[in-house]
Amino acid sequence: MFGIEALNKIFLDAMIGIPKGDIGVGVSGGGDSLALLLLSAEWAQNTNRSLKAVTIDHGLRPGSSLECDHVKRISDELCIQHTTLKWLTKPIGNLQNAARNARHELLLEWTNKQKLSVVLLGHTLDDNAETIIIKLIRGSGVDGLAGIEKNKNINGLNIFRPLINISRDDLRRYLQVKKVTWIDEPSNFDERFERIKVRNFLPSLSDIGLTSKKLVKLASHMSRVKEALNWHVSNFARQHVQQTIWGDLSINFDEFIKIPREYQFRLLSSGLRWISGKVHKPRFQSLERLLNAITSRKLGKSMTLMGCIIKYDGNWLKLSREFSAISKPSIVLKPNFVWEKKWQIEVDPEKLNVATVGPVGKNGLELIRRYNRINVPEKALICSVAMFENENLLCVPIVSYGSGLKCYMIGGDKSFLKFLLAY
Do residues 156 and 342 touch, judged by C-beta distance below 8 A? Predict the structure, then answer.
């Protein structure tokens, strides 16, 4: 049964875990995110916290700018500062995946600029239930069935989802009471999308007792299992995994083959994601094929997966970046940015719009050989960040070559261990 007081209490309880500092809220103009805007605005006022709103205009369909204007009007009425971020570079290929990645990158840039500690997003109990069904359809394991996490860090972007235990219907009733209109995207009714098919199918599951709340309860149990498994894998990594200053990982092979297979899968998957900077896990079939080759000593010279090279190095299993998977050098537009989703970069302002940043490459390696003693393996150095001007190598900070560019591994020498615990 819906009630404003009950909904407010669930929201207030959820916000107990919010990090300190100024807060952002992502608002699309749909019912869920607009309800989040209203609830968080009232919460911020009562707790004397700073709140800023943001809308991302992907520019993928007519009318998207009108939705942004609608959110701005409501934000203004609530005395909340609002920003619209536009996605300008449209790639060729998987548009949905590219849009999601662009959304995260734009949000991260915005939160850093605004010095925000976290961004609130409006995922609901129903979104979580739909995700669990989708994961079941795909044959996911524990992590997939753990559903949508309330707290998540995506390549430095801190996300908090305070509506994860509130239903979509209750949020819309809340907006009706507040006399606030929302805009439903046409894609929310398009059954070409898997999520919409699942959304329309869920009511029939309720008829046999499998409600959204029970699906979310399953996710809660799986989340605890996931947490326990990750704790054990992290403890193993502290003792038997070495992280290099250039971003490779070395796993003690003799110890690796002793641990349970589930731990092996988790450690290997996490290592590949940390090195490649990719958010999503590799396909299980590919990961299983790789693990079988590793444990049976049938890697050959090496194997590749997710833009990483996996090979034996004496008694160690070595994971490193694959040069061909790294983006080519691109022009420097900002003095501070993240490269390869793992390195914090600082560039001399004089080099903005002039220099490019990218991997050292073979040509850069030859030049460094002439002038420097190299204390980094050449295959790692080729993949390391460098700055160029007119194709001339200016700086490679990992070997203290040149000047004008600084780089720091996000998370420092414990970066991989922090990644294990966060993901």
Answer: no
What are phi and psi for residue 388, nearest 5 degrees? -125, 155
* pLDDT band at residue 13 using 50, 70 and 90 as cut-offs: very high
What six digits make up the tokens of 99? 């849009």
Instruction: Look at residue 47 and give its three-state secondary structure.
Output: helix
pLDDT at residue 60 in the model:
66
Determine which helix (DSSP H) or strand (DSSP E) holds 344, and give its type and residue range. strand 343-347
Q: Rounded to whole angstroms, how far apart are CA atoms 69 and 183? A: 12
**Residues above pLDDT 90, as percent of the chain:** 74
Q: Which residues contact 347 (CB under 8 A, 6 or more apart)?
A: 332, 334, 335, 336, 355, 357, 387, 404, 405, 406
Which stretches within 241-356 are classed as H helix?
A: 253-256, 261-276, 284-295
The per-residue pLDDT of the chain, averaged, comes to: 91
Give this prediction's pTM: 0.84
Residue 92 has pLDDT above 60, yes or no: no
- Counting residues of the chain whose pLDDT is more than 70, the rounded percentage is 96
DSSP track, 4-28: HHHHHHHHHHHGGGPPSS-EEEE--
Between the CA of residue 251 and those of 225, 243, 384, what are the distances in Å? 24, 9, 21
Question: With 0-12 CB in 10 A as exposed, 13-18 as middle and 19+ as buried, what is 64?
Answer: buried
372: left (phi over 0), alpha (psi -120 to 50) or beta: beta
